[in-house]
Amino acid sequence: MAVIYKATKEGQEKQKSSVAAQPPVEGKKGREDPSSLKPIKRRKKKRDLYRDITHKIRPGVGLQLEPKGVKFADKDKDEEALVVLRRHPVTNAPWIILTIIMFFTLFFNFHFNWLGSLPVSLRLTINYAWLVLTLLVAWSGLLSWYFNVNIISDKRIIDVDFHDLIYREVSDANLEKIEDVTHNMGGLLGIIFNFGDIYVQTAGAKPQIEFLKVPHPAQVASILRKLREAASS
Amino acid sequence: MNLNNFFADFGLVFLLKWFLPFLFLGQLIFLLIIARQIKLMSNLFKTNMDFLLKGANWLLLAITFLGLLFCFGSLS
């Protein structure tokens, strides 16, 4: 125990002497404490490096670069979202088509008077209920797309899943914890519109984080690999 | 309750008159659940668009509630 104490004391003295040996920082009247300034500068430099990496990708509807006003769970004060990913807009086609069909059904009902045999008040109520149902289909589809989000920040990657408007799942992993990045593209639409899945193996409790049907999967996977290298260097 | 009248009125119109209020009620409950989810989700992920989502949901709630009132008013 005594040996450990000695070693710690020596270390502290050594640290003190090394701090004293450093030259005072110029600018702003030389008031900054060098020990507190260094990590900040290093952090800024790293963030610039991350920005250089992420800005090589082209932003679009499902991929935003450094969006303003984004807040997410457990966000640090100095943490910034570099990339926000959602499913490719084409994946919204099923609910958009369904909504259009439902609207057209309402239009055809008015035009061809399908419910002509029913009393007027009942007919109006049915049409109103159908309209609300159509709006709800569109609304739930839109919300499902909006809240299924993947964030790449300058510290970690976050996967927010929002299933069936009832279930939520959030998983995150530090950039240094990324072990393996795999991406795949499949299907006719995926090839035409360039979207696919990215699987990130991590050393965390949840071994795999998935970015599903995101645009430019190859480029995003490449960015994640570069960010991992930059974070661990 | 006169069961003879109940069965005499039974038909499509009768079924729809009973079904529609429940449909509107279901839609209203669904929208209330979504409003709660939007509020909870904004703790996990929030953007500048958040107020738009909440506004749109309130608008849909109002439309549905009006539908329920209309349903009770016109079908009673």
Fold and architecture overview:
The complex is a heterodimer of chains A (233) and B (76). With 233 residues, chain A is of the alpha+beta class. Helix content of chain A is 48%, strand content 23%. With 76 residues, chain B is mostly helical. Chain B has one domain. Chain B is built from three helices and one strand. The radius of gyration of chain B is 18 Å and the shape is elongated. The interface between A and B is medium-sized, with 33 and 34 residues. Strand 2 of chain A pairs antiparallel with strand 1 of chain B, so a sheet runs across the interface.
Write the SSE topology.
The complex is a heterodimer of chains A (about 230) and B (about 80).
Chain A: H1 2-21, H2 34-54, E1 63-65, E2 71-72, E3 81-85, H3 93-112, H4 120-147, E4 149-153, E5 156-163, E6 167-174, E7 178-184, H5 188-193, E8 195-202, E9 208-215, H6 217-232
Antiparallel strand pairs in A: 1-3, 3-4, 4-5, 5-6, 7-8, 8-9
Helix pairs in contact in A: 2-6, 3-4
Chain B: H1 3-9, H2 12-44, E1 45-46, H3 50-75
Helix pairs in contact in B: 2-3
Offer a concise description of the structure.
The complex is a heterodimer of chains A (233) and B (76). Chain A is α+β, with helices and mostly antiparallel strands.
Key terms for this structure?
heterodimer, A: 233 residues, PH-domain like, five-stranded antiparallel beta sheet, three-stranded antiparallel beta sheet, 6 helices, elongated, disordered N terminus, B: 76 residues, mainly alpha, 3 helices, 87% helix
At CATH level 2, the architecture of the domain at 37-55 and 148-232 in chain A is Roll
Cα radius of gyration of chain A in angstroms? 27 Å
The coarse silhouette of chain B is elongated
Task: List the secondary-structure elements of chain A in sequence, H or E.
Answer: HHEEEHHEEEEHEEH
Helical content of chain B stands at over 70%
Class of secondary structure makeup of chain A = alpha+beta
β-strand number of chain A: 9
Please list the strands of the largest sheet of chain A in the order they lie side by side: 1-3-4-5-6
Number of strands of chain B: 1
Q: Write down the overall geometry of chain A.
A: elongated
